[in-house]
Design brief:
Elements (H helix, E strand, L loop, with lengths): L1 E10 L2 H7 L5 E2 L3 E11 L1 E14 L2 E11 L6 E5 L2 E6 L2 E12 L9 E3 L6 E2 L7 E10 L7 E3 L24 H5 L5 E11 L3
Parallel strand pairs: 5-9
Antiparallel strand pairs: 1-3, 1-13, 2-4, 3-4, 4-5, 6-7, 7-8, 8-11, 9-10, 11-12, 11-13
Length: 197
């Protein structure tokens, strides 16, 4: 299967993340990440997922908050020049390649992905070069949901913060995550590779 993967991370208030994480998961950094994929295997399909970095069960990785695919969700993807836009009724996100290539620091601290209803998935090994992107996104569950625009394709660090506010427990849903304001887009990239199915 041919995969074009698009990844964007944005900074949020870490105490708000702590308030919605399920029991047993510890927030590592004040980050939410949106991944999009264009998958081509006879036909072209689209996939989106929302994650946050956590530690649990002796592993460090990404906890999947929610995921959607074009076979079961109203998810479309369109290209316009260097820009690729994924769109659903509740999210629009555009990645625009900058031409600069490099690596992703977060991959050094990634055992894989936790799914609440599925087994832990070990991190996928991708040896292809990544192209940095500019990115713009907006959630649309409500009118006040998070949105953001990157700053000239820059990659910024995500520094963990000490607990300052203990918020009431929140449901572990994409809607809860989308309501947390975006402080800044921390970085985005795209990569093309072959995935064994």
């Amino acid at each position: 299967m041919k995969v074009e993967q698009f990844v964007m991370a944005y900074g949020v208030e870490q105490d708000r993340l702590r308030a919605f994480l399920p029991e047993g998961f510890v927030s590592l950094r004040p980050v939410l990440r949106i991944n999009g994929e264009i998958r081509t295997d006879e036909t072209e399909t689209y996939y989106l997922e929302l994650n946050t970095p956590v530690e649990a069960r002796g592993k460090r990785g990404w906890l999947n908050v929610a995921h959607w695919d074009s076979e079961s969700t109203d998810l479309t993807c369109k290209r316009q020049g260097k820009a690729v836009t994924f769109e659903t009724p509740f999210l629009q996100i555009t990645y625009t390649g900058t031409g600069a290539v490099g690596g992703c620091p977060a991959e050094k601290d990634d055992d894989g992905c936790f799914f609440l209803e599925e087994a832990f998935r070990p991190a996928e090994i991708i040896d292809q070069k990544k192209e940095f992107c500019d990115c713009a996104f907006s959630w649309h569950f409500t009118e006040t949901d998070a949105k953001g625009v990157s700053v000239n394709g820059k990659t910024l660090p995500a520094i963990p913060t000490e607990t300052k506010i203990t918020y009431p427990k929140q449901p572990f849903t994409a809607e809860t995550a989308a309501a947390i304001p975006c402080e800044q887009i921390l970085g985005a990239y795209m990569v093309r590779f072959e995935r064994e199915t």
